[in-house]
Amino acid sequence: MRLEREGQIGFVIISNPARMNAFTAGMWGQVPEVIAEAEADPDIRVIVLRGGGEKAFSAGADISEFENARSGASAAAYDALNDNAFLALSGCSKPTISMIHGFCMGGGLAVALCTDIRLADEAAQFAIPAAKLGLGYNARWMRPLLAAVPPARAKEMLFTGRRFKVAEAHAMGLVNTVVSADGLAEITRTLAAEIAANAPMTVRTAKRTIDELTRNPQTPDIATLDAMVDACFKSEDYAEGRLAFMEKRKPQFKGR
Q1: Full DSSP string of 62-96
Q2: Which of 37, 72, 109, 241 is the most core-located residue (most Cβ within 10 A)?
């Protein structure tokens, strides 16, 4: 796992191309670290996850490690690494995008589901093959899936373990947009740049509000959400946005 900076975009690279970017235990442990690094960089406004190489976003967890790292007493420790990685992604305050090419399977799909927006190329394939391996898929990992697809579709994916081509994945809600393979990088950068050009406090407030209302619909933290909205109205960016509108120019937001 590594972070590459490109202007206001931070690219988090899932880098294990020899194994279709399968996540080793060490890579799972690196996810919170690299996300924290991107969060701490004030110049990064949008985080994009992508796979290294040309063949896969991620084929999932590295199954070759399961005999020793994910069986018996060690299984709980391995799952804790998964949980920490998913929490780091889903709890990230900055907007996140998955740029998906090729295989997006198992743990790789779970990672993508923890991001806000998912773009995929025409060759992308998706699957959760837990039933073909006999492993359990816990409730914490199920929540992002159910936020993206209807329950009947989630059951179909989990019960069959089969691969879904990108058109079907798009129809069920796994991905936002399908683009050509040669256009994926450019379209992802364009989307990320469009988001990065907007007021960061407003974008973060929108993200936190949507996440809070969907994850905790019965007891959302309205006080915190109201405070974030109030901070937007008191910000320098709000003053800049109004002034830019009156002067008929693009605003230059500072994130404060």
Answers
A1: -GGGHHHHSSTTHHHHHHHHHHHHHHHHHT-SS-E
A2: 109
Neighbours of 209 (CB within 10 A): 18
d(CA 60, CA 161): 13
**pTM for the full predicted model:** 0.93
Please state, in angstroms and rounded to a whole number, the distance separating the CA atoms of residues 67 and 191: 41
Using one digit for the tens of pLDDT, what is the confidence trace for 213-225? Answer: 998 989 999 999 9
Tokens found for residue 143: 């929540």
Token code pair at residue 186: 């450019």
Residue 219 φ/ψ, nearest 5 degrees: -135, 60
The two three-digit tokens of residue 220, written as one number: 């959302």
Q: What is the pLDDT of residues 202-212, one digit of tens each?
A: 999 999 999 99
Domain formed by 2-195, architecture = Alpha-Beta Complex (3.90)
| Residue 62 and residue 18 in contact, taking contact as beta carbons nearer than 8 Å | no
Cβ atoms < 10 Å from Cβ of 92: 20
Of 123, 233, 221, 215, nearest in space to 178 by CA: 123
Strands of the sheet with 9-14, listed across from one edge: 2-6, 9-14, 46-51, 96-100, 117-121, 177-179
